[in-house]
Specification:
single chain, about 575 residues, alpha/beta, eight-stranded mixed beta sheet, seven-stranded mixed β-barrel, 14 helices, about 20% strand
Length: about 575
């Protein structure tokens, strides 16, 4: 009886062990599948990809010199600029990170690429940071590099990637065990891919457009005053160059001068004894090629041109939307009793009487005939012995303010833009109407009307004043699309912009002409290159060490299950 009971208990325990042995592998298999699915699922790049558009750094050849980046293809892991090792990595930077030192360091370490994230609101960036970025930007554009450099506007996904690689760089200061563990388990790597395998092609068929129009003066064979500004922009990347201050400000003031002087020239009683010509030139950021070709056409090929005749002076407007300083750049010091000398005296009178806090300076820079490039637009006229000068709030021709992707409308001070416009308009009016000469009939009319001395006369006030709303609209229109020279004759929206400027001229001016200058393909003055905007794919993946860690976990788990079965 007892033996039967003992045999029964033994059979039950043996059956339980058999059931556990059968159930154990099944449970282990289920747990293993869940573990692999959970761990490996987080590493799948296919479900964590993000495509965005980035804009490649300038690439062009000018005056037998190469500028910008020669590369476009990127296949590399994203890293922060704070990392010690950047070799074969795509360095992710914000505006704050992009300095001359870090750019050169990335070049020295043979980084695979640089991706710069631009904020949507530039006004939120501190002034010192903007200045530092502009300096680094101008330095980078001086020479060529094989390293691809891209610019992209910030968004949620790109900012997340930036913060992740930033945190990964910060963790490098922790212990080796913590770094390895974080890299294996929690770290997220980002792969940057530009897979366009098409070779970069040269573009030599760009067309430079220059617009001109005139207000004929009273009398025969009267002198001509030319007011001009270049309308194109420049910066690290053509597709991100909006050029608000340089030179949307010059174009805005010029178009307001056209509107205001149209009223004065419309009436025979207020028409001055000067022809007033206006021109908007292309290719200004590339050695002022549009200005050069326009001068050549007027002086060498045209049978009759106002530039052939008596030119009092050429006034070039460049970068006028900021600062309480106003500089007159000349190629040679003006002699007394010359038109330019008289204009300077009148300009100083206007400033001292209405804006005494504004500093006025004269900057003399000789033209180096050995150099193949010029610094200011007036130098193109000076080379042909036409009296000319440039007005700008920039003192140094090599200033970083004259070409930057951060030169947006948020950087424009509209009060100072209007003030500079008033100074130029009042000085032009005083010169053309000779308001400093009390024996001139028009001067007497203005004195009687305004009831003051010639120095106190304000021609442009009331309905003749600069309109804030119009200046704001003009600047918004000019900065609505990037005005890089290589885009203006290719993209539909950019072609519309140039056509609109021509329409504005025809609305007010007479004898409006549009000059389209084609380059000689065999010997072009400037060569641009394509692939300026690229689709980039960002893959969010686990690092390679994660696969080793996952394989080790699986092997250890299978070993535990095997020994449990045994």
């Amino acid at each position: 009886m007892r033996r039967n009971c003992w045999e029964t208990d033994h059979n039950r325990s043996q059956a339980g062990r058999d059931i556990m042995l059968l159930r154990g592998p099944r449970v282990a298999a289920v747990l293993l599948l869940l573990c692999v699915q959970c761990l490996h699922g987080s590493a799948l790049p296919a479900v964590s990809s993000y495509e965005f558009t980035a804009y490649r750094m300038q690439q062009y050849n000018l005056a037998q010199q190469k500028h910008g980046c020669r590369g476009a293809i990127v296949v590399a892991e994203a890293r922060s600029a704070d990392e010690l090792v950047l070799t074969r990595r795509c360095v992710i930077m914000k505006v704050l990170d992009f300095t001359t030192e870090k750019y050169l360091e990335a070049q020295r370490q043979n980084a695979a690429a640089i991706l710069i994230l631009l904020p949507k609101n530039i006004s939120s960036v501190p002034h010192d940071t903007v200045q530092s970025f502009m300096v680094a930007e101008s330095e980078a554009l001086l020479k060529e590099t094989l390293m691809p450099v891209y610019v992209a506007p910030e968004d949620e996904q790109l900012l997340y990637m930036y913060e992740e690689v930033k945190q990964a760089a910060a963790s490098r200061t922790s212990s080796i065990f913590i770094r390895v563990l974080r890299s294996m388990v929690t770290a997220t790597a980002f792969q940057i891919l530009v897979s366009n395998n098409a070779p970069i092609k040269a573009i030599t068929d760009n067309t430079l457009v220059t617009l001109e129009g005139v207000f004929p003066g009273a009398g025969e064979d009267v002198p001509t005053i030319v007011v001009t500004a270049h309308y194109d922009s420049y910066g690290l990347a053509p597709w991100s160059s909006y050029g608000a201050d340089s030179n949307g400000s010059g174009v805005t003031i010029l178009l307001e001068l056209v509107r205001l002087f149209h009223k004065l020239f419309s009436s025979p009683s207020t028409r001055p004894p000067y022809n007033l010509m206006f021109s908007l030139t292309g290719g200004g950021k590339y050695n002022f090629l549009g200005t050069k070709r326009w001068i050549e056409e007027n002086l060498d090929h045209a049978e009759s041109s106002l530039l052939h005749d008596n030119v009092a002076f050429v006034l070039c407007l460049d970068t006028l939307a900021n600062s309480d300083e106003l500089y007159m750049h000349v190629s040679r010091p003006p002699k007394p009793h010359t038109p330019i000398h008289s204009f300077i005296q009148l300009l100083e009178e206007v400033v001292s009487s209405r804006f005494p806090w504004v500093k006025v300076g004269l900057v003399h820079k000789k033209i180096n005939l050995v150099e193949s490039t010029v610094a200011w637009e007036h130098e193109r006229y000076s080379l042909r012995r036409i009296p000319s000068f440039t007005l700008s709030h920039v003192e140094d021709s090599k200033s970083e303010l004259r070409g930057s992707v951060l030169d947006t409308i948020s950087q424009v001070d509209f009060r100072k833009l209007k003030r500079n416009g008033i100074i130029i308009a009042e000085t032009l009016a005083r010169y053309m109407y000779n308001l400093s000469d009390k024996h001139f009939i028009v001067c007497l009319i203005f004195i009687i009307f305004h009831k003051g001395s010639p120095k106190d006369v304000q021609v442009f006030r009331g309905q003749m004043d600069f309109q804030d709303s119009r200046m704001s609209s003009l600047m918004s229109f000019l900065t609505s699309v990037p005005r890089a020279t290589q885009l203006l004759d290719k993209e539909p929206s950019h072609i519309v912009l140039v056509n609109s400027l021509e329409h504005e001229f025809k609305h007010y001016l007479q004898q409006v002409h549009r000059h389209a200058f084609q380059q000689d393909k065999r010997d072009p003055d400037i060569t641009f290159f394509d692939q300026m905007n690229q689709p980039i794919v960002m893959y969010r993946v686990k690092p390679a060490a994660f696969d080793l860690f996952l394989g080790g976990c699986i092997a250890a788990y299978l070993g535990i299950v095997y020994y449990a079965i045994q």
